[in-house]
Amino acid sequence: MQRHLLTATLAVLAIFATGRAMAQSPVHFTQGTVIPREVFVNDDKGSEVSLRALLEAQPGNINVVFVFGGGDMGANFPGRLWCADSFEDSHILRTLIGKYQGKPVGFVAIASAPVYHSGALGAKNRVFLDAADDSEEFQQARTAFISSTLAAKATGILPLQPYFDLRLHLMLNRDGKAQPGAGYGAMQPWFGAFRAAGETQFYGVPSYWIIADDGTVLAEPFRGNVYHPHGAEVSIRYTFADVDAALSGLLKAVKDAKAE
Predict the structure, then answer these.
(1) Which SS3 state, helix, strand or coil, does residue 40 take?
(2) Please, which residues have CB within 8 angstroms of residue 190's CB and are 6 or more apart in sequence?
(3) 57: phi then psi, degrees, rounded to nearest 5
(4) What structural domains and CATH numbers belong to the chain?
(5) How many CB atoms lie within 10 A of CB 134?
(6) Neighbours of 146 (CB within 10 A)
(7) Helices (H) and strands (E) in the chain — how many of each?
(8) Cβ atoms within 10 Å of 40's Cβ, excluding its own
(9) Helix, strand or coil for residue 209?
């Protein structure tokens, strides 16, 4: 009962912070919206796992979700991650986990597959966008991606067991030129909803999300850090201190609510 009351308190805080009611299936998830139960990621066997179920299984009522560019598929990039910006940003996750160890905060890391440039990493071009799940080429690419992401965990770059977004469902650019092919499967309303409105980069990773166990997004997502620009400029829009301040504030709100 107390867990549900605390979740309700966090939801109310999010609504007041945004000044709008929570929607079940927004085009772009943001503070105050609720992530639908249909949203899923994959485990290291490739099986679908409900993101909401992962959040509910974490300790406490508040979760930090790190969406990042995952394994380099054997290309031997720094940290074994294909996304250099995600490699740089991973220190925030490691520091947060160290600070909040033993506290009622959960952590989930989701590795985004290199769907737009798999050919540059030794796999067939567009394999994650076009190939069917049961095809040999997709299964080989999936294995290479998952195993290289787990290698990043083995080296300590990732401080926890990651989950996987094998088709870039969360960050899919639905307005871009590179759209999925027949093997991708049916398009769902939530595909691309973790992508920022107006995002100009191909992938839009990394990003940090603070989400309640009922799926409510409790703060504006932290995103837009560019450490290694490709034709753009270095842009640091958030630091550990920013994510920490938001998380600390929410934990204080929960503590105050329990004391009332």
Answers:
(1) strand
(2) 25, 35, 36, 38, 39, 169
(3) -80, -10
(4) 2-259 (3.40.30.10)
(5) 8
(6) 23
(7) 6, 7
(8) 19
(9) strand
| Residues sharing a CB contact under 8 Å with residue 49, sequence separation 6 or more, in sequence order | 40, 41, 42, 43, 163
SS3 165: strand
Q: How far apart are CA 213 and CA 29, in angstroms?
A: 15
Sheet holding 222-223, edge to edge: 48-50, 40-42, 163-165, 105-112, 62-69, 207-212, 222-223
SS3 61: coil
Q: Beta-carbon neighbour count of residue 158 at 10 Å?
A: 26
Q: What pLDDT is recorded for position 3? A: 54
What is the pLDDT at residue 6? 55
Could you tell me which of 58, 53, 55, 60 has the C-alpha nearest to residue 3?
60
Measured N-to-C along each axis, helices 84-100 and 240-259 cross at an angle, to the nearest 10 degrees, of 30
> Distance between CA 139 and CA 251 in Å, rounded?
41
Q: Which two tokens stand for residue 184?
A: 């991708």
Q: From the first residue on, what is the mean pLDDT of each consecutive set of 10 residues in the chain (260 residues)?
A: 51 45 58 96 98 94 97 97 98 98 96 98 98 98 98 98 98 94 96 94 96 97 93 91 98 86
Distance of CA 95 to the CA centre of its chain: 17
At 232 the pLDDT is: 74
What's the confidence (pLDDT) of residue 130?
98
Return the amino acid letter for 10.
L
User: Tokens 């990039």 belong to which residue?
Assistant: 77
- Burial, 175: exposed, middle or buried (Cβ in 10 Å; 0-12, 13-18, 19+)? exposed
